[in-house]
């Protein structure tokens, strides 16, 4: 039995983070509620963050695109902001489960669940996103490239909460490709995102190809051939075999999907 | 135990219930609206689909406490005055159900789609129904039933 908390302000949320050491945060709940049901997590309190107005905002300024921690994946997809360099986020969101879950799941939840195969994570990494957090005594900014520690493990403290994910202004084109068994239902066997900047710099990121999502930058498409880029990228990942796919299948698929991402973002450059 | 208020199928409810139950349990065991089914209870099968503040969701993936103030539509709201809705009738006419366990969820996903887009294409129907599993029909009759409504009057 846990208490249900639904603060309406960040200050109230801070208060609960401080006073409730065994607290679980609830955004979309698509992972947490399964854990609660199966007894994998046994918090004293569950804190719903969706009543805090600041967390429900999507905002684009000259410099950044900000997505509040309570914004659902479907709201992101409908926002109109996920084009151009942010298109990989759109493609990843479209690939995330099905509409029933996209109406609940959030970007911040996908990040904080820290699954190596989380669909939104490779796109966030190539776009060099960071999260902003609050704690009882302040808050901080954490680049996602320094966020993931291992399967389902991240650097957040137990009294820390993500309030938004921030994407710096980007230029160029991005794409995400995913291999799964059943559309609408399966987690990624492999997911690959790429961002090609206007200057020819290429960043690639891989989901389900190591203990954390892996980001490899920066390739130079002006001086490196596609074969060189592919070989270097495949040397940078370390997939394992598990219930979803064998190691060999993941290696093949990572190469194939990387080519598909390059096809999508390179256009006439190929 | 905590009191919450919500609107279900147009009716206002005030419920006193435990803080650690899901919306699905609230609907089935506290409001006795058992048309919404529990399949996997893990957000996989869509048998518990309801329309929650205008959006289709899995009721097993929402805590009852979150639904304080929510407006919810369930399968019990589909027929009016004992008469099946055209969507329900289309499911029967097209043989879109056999055991019937997935059908309330299928109807609610289709209802959410048609409320937003009264004339969906076949691709849009397939996309909207991705979260609902059926082990009997092979899906084709379900898609045909929704196409029949999408092509005609609701």
Provide keyphrases for this structure.
heterodimer, A: 270 residues, alpha+beta, Uridine Diphospho-n-acetylenolpyruvylglucosamine Reductase, domain 2, Enolase-like, domain 1, 4-stranded antiparallel β-sheet, 14 strands, B: 154 residues, Ubiquitin-like (UB roll), DNA polymerase, domain 1, 5-stranded mixed β-sheet, 5 helices, globular
Concise summary:
The complex is a heterodimer of chains A (270) and B (154). Chain A is of the alpha+beta class.
Number of helices of chain B: 5
The global form of chain B is globular
What is the CATH architecture annotation of the domain at 173-266 in chain A?
A: 2-Layer Sandwich
User: How far from one another are the termini of chain B?
Assistant: 41 Å
Largest sheet of chain B: 5 strands, mixed
- The total beta strand count of chain B reads 5
Task: Return the CATH class of the domain at 173-266 in chain A.
Answer: Alpha Beta
Strand order of the largest sheet of chain A: 4-5-10-6-7
Name the average pLDDT of chain B: 96
Q: What is the topology, as strand order, of the major beta sheet of chain B?
A: 2-1-5-3-4
Instruction: Give the integer mean of the pLDDT values of chain A.
Output: 95
Number of strands of chain A: 14
Per DSSP, the total helix count of chain A is 9
- Principal-axis shape of chain A: globular
- From the structure provided, what is the oligomeric state, counting identical versus distinct chains? heterodimer
What does the largest sheet of chain A look like?
5 strands, antiparallel
- CATH topology heading of the largest domain in chain B: Ubiquitin-like (UB roll)
Roughly how many Å is the radius of gyration of chain A?
A: 18 Å
Could you give the order of the helices and strands of chain B?
EEHEEEHHHH
């Amino acid at each position: 039995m846990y208490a249900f908390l639904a603060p309406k302000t960040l200050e109230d949320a801070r208060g609960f983070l401080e006073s409730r050491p065994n607290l679980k945060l609830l955004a979309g709940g698509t992972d947490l509620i399964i854990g609660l049901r199966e007894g994998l997590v046994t918090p004293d309190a569950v804190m719903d963050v969706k009543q805090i107005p600041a967390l429900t905002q999507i905002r684009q300024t000259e410099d950044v695109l900000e997505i509040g921690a309570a914004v659902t994946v479907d709201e992101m997809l409908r926002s109109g902001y996920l084009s151009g360099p942010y298109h990989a986020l759109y493609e990843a969101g479209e690939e995330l489960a099905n509409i029933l879950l996209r109406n609940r799941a959030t970007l911040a939840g996908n990040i904080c669940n820290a699954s190596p195969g989380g669909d939104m994570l490779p796109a966030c990494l190539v776009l060099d996103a960071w999260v902003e957090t609050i704690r009882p005594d302040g808050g901080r900014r954490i680049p996602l490239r320094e966020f993931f520690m291992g399967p389902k493990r991240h650097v957040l403290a137990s009294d820390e909460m993500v309030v938004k994910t921030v994407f710096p202004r980007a230029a160029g084109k991005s794409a995400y490709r995913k291999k799964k068994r059943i559309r609408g239902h399966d987690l990624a066997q492999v997911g690959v995102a790429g961002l090609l900047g206007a200057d020819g710099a290429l960043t690639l990121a891989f989901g389900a190809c190591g203990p954390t999502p892996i980001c490899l930058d920066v390739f130079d498409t002006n001086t490196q051939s596609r074969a060189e880029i592919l070989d270097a990228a495949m040397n940078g990942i370390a997939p394992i075999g598990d219930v979803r796919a064998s190691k060999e299948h993941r290696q093949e698929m990572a190469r194939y999907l990387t080519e598909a991402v390059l096809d999508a973002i390179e256009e006439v450059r190929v | 135990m905590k009191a919450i208020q919500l609107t279900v199928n147009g009716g206002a409810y005030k419920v006193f219930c435990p803080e650690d139950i899901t919306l699905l349990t609230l609907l089935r065991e506290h409001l006795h609206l058992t048309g919404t089914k529990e399949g996997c209870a893990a957000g996989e099968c869509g048998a518990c689909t309801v329309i929650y503040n205008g959006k289709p969701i899995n009721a097993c993936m929402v805590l009852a406490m979150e639904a304080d103030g929510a407006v919810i539509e369930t399968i019990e709201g589909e027929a009016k005055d004992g008469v099946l809705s055209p969507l329900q009738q289309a499911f029967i006419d097209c043989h879109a159900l056999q055991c019937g366990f997935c059908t309330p969820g299928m109807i609610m996903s289709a209802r959410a789609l048609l409320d937003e887009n009264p004339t969906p294409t076949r691709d849009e129907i397939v996309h909207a129904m991705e979260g609902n599993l059926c082990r009997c029909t092979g899906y084709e009759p379900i898609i045909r039933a929704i196409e029949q409504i999408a092509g005609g009057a609701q």
